[in-house]
Each structure stands twice: as structure tokens, then as C-alpha cells.
Design brief:
By secondary structure, this protein is an alpha/beta fold. It contains 13 helices and eight strands. It folds into two domains: 3-157, 3-Layer(aba) Sandwich (Rossmann fold); 165-274, N-(1-d-carboxylethyl)-l-norvaline Dehydrogenase, domain 2 (Orthogonal Bundle), CATH 1.10.1040.10.
């Protein structure tokens, strides 16, 4: 089995690093491929990965990038062999998954969604949770890729359902994030030692591990100016939150749901986490 990976950002790099040989990688940024030079084929395009791999993971920025990689002018459908399997790890709309899967199927290529939850370090520690949508046979054939960086693989249902499960998980994460930041702001403004809130919410389990680590990290950088790496990262996090919450809100609307808490947090998340 030959592995491929497209999209070598922070998360994609870590996921690709866990894949067995033989491996082929591609990123639009040539420097992002350099760490793989001594162990992988460095493709010249996304489509070129299709010439060197039959099990490929995608971790690109957005829906349009996924479409370009799979069915664009130099996309995988023009170069990959029949029987190739493509896992979409990017957080995209379910309709993007189903549309690209339908196009790819005309070329004998199987596409499914494999959304992930966890950090780059979680991928390196093989602790990602992978939420998949698609048929059992395709997912089973893709397990060597998914198991390389995941501790749990959850089959949500048909194509696109893995993404909906990821949206719901992200919704909880960002609502918790907003609540955590504002809870600490409240006690600090009242002159209460924030360590006491940590103690209370740890004991009653309101504060999960990720939020506790985030708040500790945030407190350690609180005195830095707005141009520090930490606060620049918070701006990036706010942008990601806005995108992910938009996906959740749109998915809810397609089911006739109005996700009011999601709408409120999306409208205010940048101000909440960057102030």
C-alpha cells in the first residue's frame, strides 16, 4: 500500500509524519515539504500525488481547496488510478464531500470524510479521534491511514455525516472556550484568585483538560502586547472558530434548526478571545 498526503500545515504535517512508507506528500508551500525530503516523494502538484499513492489523506484549508485537489484542472481524478481511496480530513460542508465523491466515483476513485479532533501533538501521540462518513468497505480499506494517527475511529454514517459530527464537537469546544475565558475574566475583575475557580471547576468537572490547559496558557501570556506570537495565534484561532461555527450553523439550518448559542458565540468569539 502506497500512502499520500496533501496539505502540510501544522496538523497535516503531524498526520503525514505518522504514515508508513512508501509515502508521497504535497503542499502548495515548498518549504512545508522539506522535512519529508529524506523519506518521501515530494510531489510537484496535488494531482501528482495520485501517481504515487493509492491511499491519500487531504488536510487543506477549505471547501474550494478540497474541490481543486480532487476535481480541479490538475486534480486527483486526472492522475490517480481506479481504486484509489481519498480521505477528506479538512473541515468542510457535507455537500462538498458528497459532490466530490460523486465526481471521483466516475473515475473509479473512492472519497469519504474523515474529520479529526485533536491537536498536531495528539496526531504525533496517536491520540486523534477520527469521525468518518461513508460505506464500510471504503473505510475498512482506509484503516491503515486512519489508524496511523488515531486512537479512536467513529463511523457516523453515510457520506458527510462525519463532518456533521465534527461540527457538533467543534460547537461544544468553542462554546466551552468562550465560557471559560469569560468565567476567568469575571473572577479576576472581582478580585478573586483565579486559581480558586480552577479548583472549583476541576473538582466539579466543569473544567475539562483542554480548557484547563488553554486557560493556563492564556494566563501565562496575558501581559504580552497584541503583536506577540501568542496574541497573533489568538487572532488565527478566532478566525478558525468563526469558520467552524459557520459550518455548524449552516448544517443546523439544513436540518431546520436555529443554533442560537452558536450564532451568539460566532458573532462575539473574536472579541472574547482576543481582548
Amino acid at each position: 500500500m502506497r500512502f499520500g498526503f496533501i496539505g502540510l500545515g501544522d496538523l497535516g504535517h503531524a498526520m503525514a509524519a505518522m504514515l508508513p512508507d512508501p509515502l508521497c506528500v504535497y503542499d502548495v508551500s515548498a518549504p512545508a515539504m522539506e522535512p519529508f525530503r529524506n523519506r518521501a516523494v515530494l510531489a510537484t502538484s496535488a494531482g501528482d500525488v495520485g501517481r504515487h499513492a493509492d491511499l491519500i489523506g487531504l488536510c487543506v484549508r477549505n471547501d474550494q481547496d478540497v474541490c481543486d485537489v480532487i476535481s480541479g484542472p490538475d486534480g486527483l481524478i486526472h492522475h490517480a488510478a481506479s481504486g484509489t481511496i481519498v480521505a477528506i480530513h479538512s473541515t468542510v460542508m457535507p455537500e462538498t464531500v458528497t459532490a466530490q465523491a460523486a465526481i471521483a466515483a466516475q473515475h473509479g476513485i473512492m472519497v469519504f470524510d474523515a474529520a479529526v479532533s485533536g491537536s498536531a501533538q495528539d496526531a504525533l501521540d496517536k491520540r486523534q479521534v477520527c469521525m468518518v462518513g461513508g460505506d464500510e468497505a471504503t473505510i475498512s480499506a482506509a484503516l491503515p491511514l486512519l489508524e496511523a494517527f488515531s486512537r479512536q475511529i467513529v463511523h457516523a454514517g453515510s457520506l458527510g455525516q462525519g463532518m456533521v459530527l465534527k461540527f457538533a464537537n467543534n460547537l461544544t469546544t468553542y462554546l466551552q472556550l468562550a465560557a471559560t475565558v469569560e468565567s476567568y475574566a469575571l473572577v479576576e475583575a472581582a478580585g478573586i484568585d483565579p486559581a480558586l475557580l480552577t479548583r472549583v471547576m476541576t473538582d466539579n468537572e466543569n473544567l475539562n483538560r483542554m480548557m484547563k490547559l488553554y486557560q493556563q496558557y492564556r494566563a501565562a501570556h496575558a501581559d504580552e502586547d497584541g503583536n506577540s506570537p501568542f496574541w497573533i495565534a489568538q487572532q488565527a484561532l478566532a478566525g478558525l472558530a468563526e469558520k467552524d461555527l459557520h459550518h455548524a450553523i449552516e448544517a443546523g439550518a439544513r436540518q431546520g434548526l436555529t443554533l442560537r448559542a452558536a450564532e451568539a458565540v460566532r458573532a462575539n468569539i473574536r472579541q472574547i478571545i482576543t481582548k
